[in-house]
# Entry
Amino acid sequence: MRGADPRVVLGLHRSRHERRLLTRALDLGVTALDTSTNYLGFHSHQVLARTAGDLLPKFTVSTKVGYFPGPDGVEHSLDPVRLQAAVEQAAKDLGREPDLVFLHNPEHSLHEAAPRNGDLLAQACGALAAATAKGLCGAWGIASWDPTPLPSLVDTTAPRPSALMVRAGLLVGTRTLDAADALTEAWHLGDGRVWGMSPFGGSTSALVWDRVDPRVFLRASSGLSRIQAAFRAAYCLPKVGTVAVGTEEPAHLAELIGALAGDIDEQAIHEYRGLLRTRLRGQLF
# Structure
């Protein structure tokens, strides 16, 4: 059995929440789970507690709030009362307080709230900070699929998240990368408190992974596959200390853990980000 590696989190976005995957993750040293109130048709927490309640104390558990069942299926809300109630319900459904609760995709509602979107974000942050102070969760953060609107809304007088989750990897655009960097600086978050997600853009079988060789971002491939190299590079695009990755196959999880031994070529990453910015400028002019 490997020692626990805090840099890999098993994400449950598309997972069937099977017990075999969780037990194998523990065998591999992966001791962190990431889910959300709306995963598995808003039943993720209950299913986890029912199928693996005895295993959950062995994991740190992060979840997300912001999406709610609605008349048309799913709705998003930053209402402070609803957010606090969602954190409380998550603890009840899991049978334990989550170690970390993310405010889930706040940009979803912020687009419609201008010009009061800054106030709305601050109030939502205050709700999660209050939930943390009440002991409903261990800490709180922000998970954003599109963080580009957020840097201009940061209020230095509002509660500050202790973690940030953003998309990471070679398929992430320069605007998202720059926004993640700006938020990391504004909230004074070190690399260890910034998480990456969706390192393969949703699929390791996409044609792009046959057409590019991410091993160019490693100093030496050390026998790593293209998928392993892409996963390792995701820790630098943007700079993150943890990556949440979903899979249904324990063998795939083991393969990704093996990628952590790869040695990143920082200069190649720097040049790549420069190329992304140059390409963006070409599109703008």
In short: The longest strand covers residues 60-65. Confidence is low (pLDDT under 50) at residues 1-6.
